[in-house]
Design a protein that fits this description.
Length: 293
């Protein structure tokens, strides 16, 4: 580990996009300025949005191959099921780390109760690329309820972190990753300042989704909906000025780049176009299965 501070290399603002059956997401990457964030492929923020009864929508049956999806729910209830017979539900604070591997057909929908009664939905889905050696591995799930997500607080009580992957403030995640990854949810009060140590081999990204924070050596200001691409090595400094009217919430994502070719077509992410065409054929011929209801 190095004691030096990383700097902000680039800042992008999330754009809004329609997904699934019609819900709107904020997407900080990929964007025109940030095509890839190796080893990450895409980050979507769903909501916060409050649905009236009968309005809530999700992502009906769709295939995946060659990467992982990480669903982190802050508010609301999501029911999911897949072609391997796996079913479950996620509530506030829960995480599902799905390794699609050689392929599954998956469905993610608001719970029956939320579809009937309405309610607020807020959460994230991160797509993590798999190295070539793992793209055709057997699918697997890691579902971690909120109570099992490690949480730590700085000595002054002004910075709190939930560690989805990696480690921070002396606690380590319950989730295992295929390559070295950090996924932190930080909540910072006015006056908070914390240096997050990361291995020098990791690339780091910071996404603010509430309030404003300063990031990196030089204290670059980021507002709600902005993503910083970090440069250099060492720790990432996260802070909120002591005179700020409110605190901030943000995600810190970091990972070791795969540095491999990326062939991407919708829900399939492989290394070559031939592998993409094979994935499409396999899906069309039912080799990824179907959800039994």
């Amino acid at each position: 580990m190095s004691t030096q501070q990383r700097t902000v290399e680039q800042v992008s603002t999330a754009h809004r996009q329609r997904e699934g059956a019609g819900f709107i997401v904020r997407r900080p990457f990929p964007t025109r300025g940030i095509a890839q964030a190796d080893p990450f492929l895409m980050l979507d923020e769903m909501g916060p949005i409050t649905y009236a009864p009968g309005q809530a929508v999700g992502a009906p049956d769709h295939p995946h191959r060659g990467f992982e999806t990480v669903s982190y729910i802050l508010a609301g209830e999501v029911e999911h099921e897949d072609s391997a017979g796996h079913r479950g539900a996620l509530g506030p604070g829960d995480v599902q780390w799905m390794t699609a591997g050689r392929g599954v057909v998956h469905s993610e929908m608001p719970s029956k109760r939320m579809r009937a009664e309405g309610g607020t939905v807020h959460g994230f889905q991160l797509w993590v690329n798999l190295p070539a050696r793992d793209k055709m591995m057997a699918p697997r799930y890691q579902e971690i309820p909120a109570a099992r997500i490690p949480t730590a607080t700085s000595a002054d009580g002004r910075a709190t972190v939930r560690v989805v992957a990696g480690e921070a403030l002396g606690v380590s995640a319950a989730i295992e990753t295929r390559t070295p990854i950090a996924y932190h949810h930080w909540t910072l009060a006015p006056g908070a300042s914390v240096d997050v140590a990361l291995p020098d081999a990791m690339r780091a990204y910071v996404y603010v989704f509430r309030g404003s924070a300063t990031v990196g050596d030089g204290a670059r200001s980021l507002r709600d909906g902005q993503l910083a691409v970090m440069a250099g090595h060492g720790a990432v400094r996260l802070a909120v000025p002591s005179d700020a009217r409110e605190g901030a919430e943000l995600l810190l994502l970091a990972g070791v780049a795969l540095n491999e070719p990326v062939a991407w077509h919708g829900p399939f992410v492989m290394n070559t176009q031939a592998e993409i065409e094979e994935a499409i054929r396999d899906y069309q011929r039912g080799r990824l299965g179907a959800i039994r209801r």
